[in-house]
Amino acid sequence: MSRKRLPETTAYVRITHQSWQNGRIEGEVRANDYEWQFQWRFRQGELVVEPSLGRALIKDPLARFLERSDYQLEPGGDYSFTIRADI
Predict the structure, then answer these.
(1) Which terminus of the chain has fewer Cβ atoms in its 10 Å neighbourhood, N or C?
(2) Cα 16 vs. chain centroid, distance in angstroms?
(3) Strand 9-19 to strand 24-31: parallel, antiparallel, or no bridges (unpaired)?
(4) Nearest alpha carbon to residue 29 among 40, 46, 16, 13
């Protein structure tokens, strides 16, 4: 029995602004030919991703990445994570 390998896409994140006082992290995320801007209001648990094109593909994986990594993220920092899907 052969197991098919799940598709994977690497998403690249750049943090552009961070405010612990306001409970907000902002940045950009890229995956293949898509690029989005995001704002994460972590005190409210709210993630806003723009533009809407392809947003459904990135929003949940990005939210999991941000929740897992929030205290390690710094403005100007470049990060990446793997999505188990083709984007």
Answers:
(1) N
(2) 13
(3) antiparallel
(4) 13
